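Appendix B. Chain record.
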Amino acid sequence: MTQKLIITAGASGIGLAIARHFASNGALVAICDIDATAISQVTDEFALATTCDVTDVDAVASFVNQAVERMGGLTTVIANAGTAGPTALIEDIAPEDWAQTIAVNLTGQYALCRAAIPYLKAHNKGSVILMSSAAGRLGLPMRSPYAAAKWGVVGLKETLAMELGPHSITVNAILPGSVKGPRMDAVLTAKAKASGISLDAARNAEVQNTSLGRMIEPDEIAELAWFVASPAARSISGQSLGLCGNFETLR
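Structure tokens predicted for this chain:
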């Protein structure tokens, strides 16, 4: 059976690594991303590549409907869109920044699942993968809206696994740690500035409390997503799958 994947924020970073891994293994792939420039650079690689703001529920539904029509079905849904949010103590976080972080990281996953799950139910099979974070199991100082949203994703995963199990649909969450790339570079730059330390010191601190002592490569997440969506993982559901080198603490 040909995999037919929908993934949000698929034009760069982790999302692009996942989309390309699925496509390289013969899957049909539909991606969306809020970054029009990034989308324009990968349009020819996938069955569908279009812009979409995941905080716009109607736009997400339109993207899903178009993707399913273009691919002739749907087998796998990956809610990957996210934002780092502000780096500050909670009393210094503006309400609008809190709301935006929750909207992208949690409500955006609701919007995708709301639109896509009826297609999976219609075929009584499929896989849903929600992207959480190591911050979805640990506290994360100066990143409270991000951590709150990622804990919310784990709760959403637990509930959807129960709701969709009777339809032979698996639901799991991947919890990456610090992943190499521009987004992590931006987070570490903000953390260094807020903490009054150098960028090198921030990089060292990021992996200091990780058992493996290194950051994660985007391709590692892509490989895990491919397995979780495969028939080999058909009995794996409701799980929070850490891929972080074992963060012992995020302090």
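Further analysis of this model is presented in Appendix C.
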